[in-house]
Amino acid sequence: MIYILTKHKYFKHAKILLEKIVFKDFLSTRPVLSALVSKDNGDDSDVNALMLSWLVIAYCNSRMTQEAIQVFEHMRVHRLRPELHACTVLLNSLAKDRLTDTVWKLYKKMVGLGVEANIHVYNVLIHACCKSGDAEKAEKVLSEMELKSVFPDLFTYNTLISLYSKKGMHYEALCAQHRMETAGISPDIVTYNSLIYGLCRESRMREASRLFREIKDATPNHVTYTTLIDGFCRVNDLDHALRVREVTETKGLHPGVVTYNTILRKLCGGGRIRDANKLLNEMNGKNIEPDTVTCNTLINAYCKIGDTKSALKVKDKMLDAGLKLDSLTYKALIHGFCKVKDMDSAKEFLFSMLNSGFCPSYCTYYWLVDGYCDQRNEEAVIKLLDEFVTRGLLVDISVYRAITRGLLVQHFTIKLIESVKFLMMVRDYIFKKLIDFRGNFAKEN
């Protein structure tokens, strides 16, 4: 039916019918694809190519990229040239998914089928370079464009400038801006935002501020002001960051949670907890909901000064708001309780962290061991391994490392024989793992 409708140029009806069955599991299987291009449908390769091109687009729009690739490969095997738009959509889907290697492989196959790249295809390729951070390949694409007389547009230059700025290649970014202006293309706010970001990233705030003042034919947006605020926070110029935030509000652009998090992080880092709480109250007054970053910043700040009571209050509010604790939350709480020598609470948060599926670092284990050693509670250190087993948790090598180091550092309270004992346990643990691996490997082969 789709073939007949397409052949008689009832394209709209053919596409509707195709989209109705696009989610059916059988559609992209080899027998069905072969049926679509079989001799029963005639030898009209143009019609067959058009049908399958629509199928590629439909799959990509439904985020079924692998199915789209399968259809493309089927077309390649049968020497059917896909529509240019279908190639662009497929390449773009792959670039968005950061499958950059597949993007280049597919592009070569596309060229092999005789599909001529246009500005949209080249923009997708440069976007893929930006995703992978490959400035050298982006320049090669640009050279290929010039060779084929395909002229870059605003999107091309913006993507290049963004790539250069993220890579710290500020000179190259400015050269790209000069080239676009020479070509008669005016920079927009996206262009300026990338350039300002590059300068702020390198803490060149004087140049970033000057470029901000030189913005013409474009209106600064949330990204512009947030980038500047973050830049001033990077160079510890909090007063200037706060002034930029005030300017943002006078322009009718109300800062979001990302902007507040940037300032909050700097306030907490400088020990200005009272000012941080004022900022938090301001957020509440403006109905700006704190996110996980906001709460983690406050919890970490409270734990650093040993105020675990306030840290727990923030943690409870975080849960009440429907936010989930992440590895940074647990890490801050464990460190905080170890700091105030509340080792039982620190240990419970460690096990909660493990039960939640997070993997603590060596430092996290060491804080706990070091805390027990400072209390001269050698028995708790020695029993820690047994508690892991009792709770049904895997004993990570980091646990052994932390315990061994803790015992060696605290040699004045614990006999050296205990340290040697744990070193032997580490050895036995590694040998057991190797034997288990060898046994499993033998069974599988």
From TrEMBL:
Pfam families registered for this protein in UniProt: PPR, PPR_1, PPR_2
Tree of life domain: Eukaryota
Intervals holding PPR repeats: 48-82, 118-152, 153-187, 188-218, 221-255, 256-290, 291-325, 326-360
Secreted is among the record's keywords: no
Keywords for the protein's UniProt record, in alphabetical order: Repeat
Xref: PANTHER family: PENTATRICOPEPTIDE REPEAT-CONTAINING PROTEIN 3, MITOCHONDRIAL
Family assignment from sequence similarity: Belongs to the PPR family. P subfamily.
Protein name: Pentatricopeptide repeat-containing protein
